[in-house]
Amino acid sequence: MGRLLLAVVVGTGAMLAASGAGAQGKPADALQGAFQGAWVADGTSCASVFASTPSGMRFKKPVDAFAPAFIVQGKRIVTPLATCRVRSMALDEKRVSIQLACANSVSYATTSTVFALAGPGMLVRYLAEGDAGPIYRRCDAPGG
Predict the structure, then answer these.
(1) pLDDT per position as a tens digit, 25-60
(2) Which superkingdom, per the lineage (predicted)?
């Protein structure tokens, strides 16, 4: 499979599942609540990546394969290049660790990511070393 899919998922899209990060209750419940929607890296314009439709946000066409963005839809996370299914989530203090099964048109891989809430409509993805990484903001949040 490909390191390409893994890099895409970890580098841009995996950030997505962060949705459950610091939410009350079961981690899986978080994906059904406040973390649903479209997310971009802080500093990226929502309008440059997403288009609004009656059924919600979608990636603008042509899709920028390297846009630091994702969409959480139920227990799915959609990135510019892959769609991931949440396999499991574990809450550890205020962080959530998410196991993902991701696929694109040519490959399939499993991977994981760690997220936490960083404020209203914001989340942070943690790097392998445990250091805080990129911050993402929800596009459909106030001011998004």
Answers:
(1) 565 565 556 678 999 999 999 999 999 999 889 999
(2) Bacteria
